[in-house]
Amino acid sequence: MSIKRDYSPAAKWQAANPADLGMDAARLTGLDSLIKSEFSNINGVAVVRHGYIAYESYYNGRDPEEPLHIASVTKSILSALIGIAIDTGYIESTNQKVLDFFPEYVPGAADQQQNITIRHLLTMSAPYPFDDWQEPLDKMCMQIDWVKYILDLLGHGGKIGAFKYSTASTHLLSAILTRSTGLSAREFANEQLFKPIGMKEIPDYGMESFGFDDLFGHKVKGWVEDPNRISTGGWGLTLTARDMARFGLLYLNRGRWDNKQVISGTWIDESTAMTPYSYGYLWWLREDDGIYTYSALGDGGNVLCCIPDRDLAIAITSDFILNPCDRWPLIKEHIIPAVMA
Asked: What is the pLDDT along the chain (341 residues), one digit of tens a residue?
């Protein structure tokens, strides 16, 4: 008998027989040997269909309760927080000017700076004086005031509307969230997103120092902050694979959880609507052989892939390594074909 989604996971998930979820159990079972042989840095995989766990496995000594650094998957979480801030009236709209939130910076701002909006930050179409994928992130991390450093770069070089991937933009969004709500992104997420959908609260660990290991490496815990306690917008959040999948399920359900609208359906639709750059509001978009997906992607192969027409969410946590195997063939060739009905 096929199971349809009729519940929202509470503190604990429910697992179900893959066949009852319209999935091929043998194909899913085969994932284990494939991951061990070809994807050695994967720490955890959770495949959720119709809201139930169809497959889950952990590697390298990891377990389901261990939060891990999800790298740039953090960006898609931040996108949701901006949507909630707009839904609740803290931010007017995506068309609000960035410099509205930094009035002390307005005097002397260049013309182009004054025309940059929240939408430009969300869609990676804000101009900076560096080439695409050549962002000097290390320089930002050495600053006493990251936000001022970003504002000094914003609008200098390039043109508004051209795609340029920028972690600086997402950190600016985090600062905007704090200026508009009075809460850090971590605090706002705990209150407005994580708690309502049963995710674990992210504690305030504080930052003892700002070296590589503290910002990106093995010392990362909770949610990394800059020297002024602004939650890092583009990386630095630690989550379990289950909680990543929970977030994906919220999006598949167009922002509803347990009969409560946590994020507006309009925001979900806008965030994941295909664009010429295959990038929405901090979500990567893909259409491949008739399969439409939106994904949160992070260094090392951290992935949250949502496939709406299959009602499928796939969460993959990974250790950071250089040049990891692309996760898309794993998803396209092995997980999606497991869906039978």
From this structure: 466 666 678 667 888 999 999 999 999 999 999 999 999 999 999 999 999 999 999 999 999 999 999 999 999 999 999 999 999 999 999 999 999 999 998 777 777 888 999 999 999 999 999 988 899 999 999 999 999 999 999 998 889 999 999 999 999 999 999 999 999 999 999 999 999 999 989 999 999 999 999 999 999 999 999 999 999 999 999 999 999 999 999 999 999 998 899 999 999 999 999 999 999 999 999 999 999 999 999 999 999 999 999 999 999 999 999 889 999 999 999 999 999 87
User: Under CATH, to which class is 69-237+247-285 assigned?
Assistant: alpha beta
- What are the extents of the domains in the chain? 1-66, 69-237+247-285
pTM (2 d.p.): 0.96
Kindly list the strands in the beta sheet with 52-58, ordered across the sheet, starting from the edge strand earlier in the chain: 52-58, 42-49, 312-318, 302-307, 291-298, 284-288
Pairing mode of beta strands 284-288, 260-261 = unpaired
Stated as kind and residue range, the H or E segment containing 139 is helix 137-141
